[in-house]
Design a protein that fits this description.
Elements (H helix, E strand, L loop, with lengths): L1 H32 L7 H25 L7 E3 H34 L1 H7 L2 H22 L9 E3 L12 H36 L7 H4 L8 H13 L1 H44 L6 H23 L2 H15 L16 H22 L4 H10 L13
Antiparallel strand pairs: 1-2
Helix pairs in contact: 1-2, 1-10, 1-11, 2-3, 2-10, 3-4, 3-5, 3-6, 6-9, 9-10, 9-12
GO molecular function: G protein-coupled receptor activity
Subcellular location: Cell membrane
Pfam families: 7tm_1
């Protein structure tokens, strides 16, 4: 039974590593081959972090976690390198996800402002910030490590192997800067996006032009009854649209935030509990499990942030057809029902907010416009109130 568990665990770890390699390479190739995908620059960086983890970190994790490699002995320098890669790549991945959430907020809620402010210089500055912060927090973990020619088993190569009271301070600081603060940012941003989605889904559908702005207004009872009847007949069509927009918002929020918490919360909760309450830990089965739950995000992220996107999937289909030399007549047509829930939801919000910003910037506040808008009382289709900055 123990041998079967070891084989199954080794198979799962190898499968996760292989999936992370393939999925991240595919998404990176698609983004780099398509210059128009400038808005996916941080997604490409996230895939690069995941790919580096799959190449360097996850194979070392397999050696440290499987009993098949109990004979492997690490020197102090090699153990430091493993700890450095472990903390650095996990930190870089989480910080990139938090920046993606902020970028997505501006892309959806303030699309015109996003197009102006989102430059290559800003993106490079964000990438530099991620790596500087990740390296600094990792260097703090290696303070006061022993020097010399000591060695330890690969399974015991953890941050707790080096004794010292500063490990408790490091774990607390690491959890705050690389998990608690990014989690607050992600929850705040996606909650704001959800509120925008709810507002957009509650907007009324456009009234026909002849009902909104007739050429010759008439205040007769017959005309008022006609307009009121037309509006009432449109209500059955509005209710499914509102429910659909609300459901997409909830599902998107649950998928993105839920995946992040499921992968990262066990890892940081275990280390906080071990360092603060227990006081010391020497590796073991529990640490191995939560570590690989965190590593699973390297294989899951390219699906949630890359392949779930309709544009990336369409480009992947084009590359696949070009590799297979298929005729152009076999173009893949994705209907609205076939596209991802997340991408439909994001496009829905961007269209709504873009319509509002164009409306407020292009329509002059003339007395006639104000009179027409006040008289009709019907907002622009998909209009979302702009949040004050």
């Amino acid at each position: 039974h123990s041998t079967a568990q070891e084989i199954l665990g080794l198979f799962c770890m190898i499968l996760l590593t292989f999936t992370a390699l393939v999925a991240n390479i595919v998404v990176m190739v698609i983004i780099l081959k398509t210059p128009l995908f400038r808005k996916f620059i941080f997604v490409c960086h996230l895939c690069a972090v995941n790919l580096l983890s799959a190449i360097f970190l996850m194979p070392l994790g397999i050696i440290s976690s499987s009993s098949c490699f109990n004979w492997v002995i690490y020197s102090i320098a090699e153990c430091k390198a493993v700890i450095f890669l472990n903390i650095c790549f996990i930190s870089a991945s989480i910080l990139t996800i938090s920046i993606i959430s902020v970028e997505r907020y501006y892309y959806i809620v303030h699309p015109l402002r996003y197009e102006v402010k989102m430059t290559i210089r800003l993106a490079v500055a964000g990438v530099i910030f991620i790596w500087v912060k990740s390296v600094l927090i990792t260097v703090l973990a290696l303070v006061a490590w022993p020097h010399g020619n000591g060695a330890t088993s690969a399974s015991r190569c953890t941050v707790y192997w080096s004794p010292g009271a500063h490990k408790k301070v490091f774990v607390i600081l690491f959890s705050i800067t690389c998990f608690i603060l990014p989690t607050i940012i992600i929850l705040t941003v996606y909650s704001s996006i959800y509120r925008v989605a709810r507002t957009a889904s509650l907007q009324q559908a456009p009234v026909p032009a002849q009902a909104v702005a007739p050429r010759h207004r008439c205040d007769s009872i017959a005309s008022q009854v006609t307009i009121l009847t037309a509006r009432i007949l449109m209500l059955p069509r509005l209710i499914p649209d509102r429910l659909l927009g609300s459901n997409k918002a909830i599902l998107t929020l649950v998928l993105i935030v839920g995946q992040f918490l499921c992968c990262c919360l066990p890892f940081f909760a275990f280390h906080l509990h071990s360092s603060v309450i227990v006081g010391t830990v020497g590796g073991g089965h529990g640490e191995m499990v939560v570590t690989w739950i965190a590593y699973s995000s390297f294989a899951i992220n390219p699906f949630f942030y890359g392949l779930l996107n309709r544009q990336i999937r369409e480009e992947l289909a084009r590359l696949r057809r070009s590799c297979l030399n298929r005729p152009l007549g076999q173009e893949l047509c994705l209907s609205i029902s076939e596209t991802s829930v997340q991408e439909n939801f994001l496009q829905f919000l961007q269209r709504a907010t873009w319509t509002l910003e164009m409306h407020t910037s292009c329509v002059s506040p003339s007395p006639r416009n104000r009179l027409d808008h006040t008289t009709t009382g019907f907002p622009t289709p998909g209009q979302v109130p702009e949040e004050s900055s």
